[in-house]
Amino acid sequence: MRFYRFILRYFSGLLPALALCATSHAQVGQIPETQSADIVAEIVEGFMLTQAESLPGAARVTVDTPRITNQPACDALEPFLPGGKRLRSRMSVGVRCLAPQSWTTYVQVNLIVDGFYYVANKTLNPGDVVSLNDVVAREGDILRLTGGVVSDPGQIIGYIVTQRVPAGNPVKSTALRDPESIQRGQAVRTVARGPGFVATGEGQALQSGGPGAQIQVRSSSGQVITGVVLDANTVLIPM
């Protein structure tokens, strides 16, 4: 009888220990949770929409399914543009995990920005002043066009053509100049203002620039000075 009581007491004390060992073993062998690809895609989409807010149009983003293999679940995901690349129609976006375990992956993205741009209604030649009849609006994906296309008519109408633009081609900012800008080699008037006085002079622009831009001017005495473009003929010399 005593023997049976001993056996019962022995196994009664042993069972909790066995249960604890089994639980610990299960915890040690548990596979860590893998990062959700859907969450990564959602973060990338939001990031790209934010990046495209400065563009003159409505952005649409399509994210390829992220290639998540054994990356553990992340508490702090940070998207970024590799190497500070500019936005393109097809590009790679980086996503790094900051905690609890660092890792980095890259996701392919398609970006479309639907907006208005302007094309030449006729051939525009250098020296032409663009009028409203010279251009026509078009709508499309402005990212697929060569950089510099103009979407604001206020930056076209009244501007001076500097490069030939064939009929039907997009009008680019690089082919236009502000009518209030100064061109390199142009004769300019310099104005220096100080407390109680205004001094004017003549000079030659050594650089081109629009209103507000800083350019260098060679004065009539031969001195090179720096000033701010006020209009098509005047440079303000800070005192």
Number of helices: 2
What is the percentage of strand-forming residues? 25-35%
By helix and strand content, what is the structural category? alpha+beta
Number of domains: 3
Instruction: Give the biggest beta sheet.
Output: 5 strands, antiparallel
Query: What is the chain-wise order of helices and strands?
Result: HHEEEEEEEEEEEE
Kindly report the average pLDDT value.
88
The global form is elongated
Fraction of residues in helices? 10-25%
Low-pLDDT segments: 17-29
First and last CA, distance: 112 Å
C-alpha Rg (nearest Å)? 34 Å
DSSP E strands, number: 12
Helix and strand arrangement:
Blueprint: H1 2-28, H2 37-51, E1 58-63, E2 77-80, E3 90-97, E4 103-120, E5 135-141, E6 160-161, E7 176-177, E8 187-194, E9 197-205, E10 214-219, E11 224-229, E12 234-237
Parallel strand pairs: 8-12
Antiparallel strand pairs: 1-4, 2-3, 3-4, 4-5, 6-7, 8-9, 9-10, 10-11, 11-12
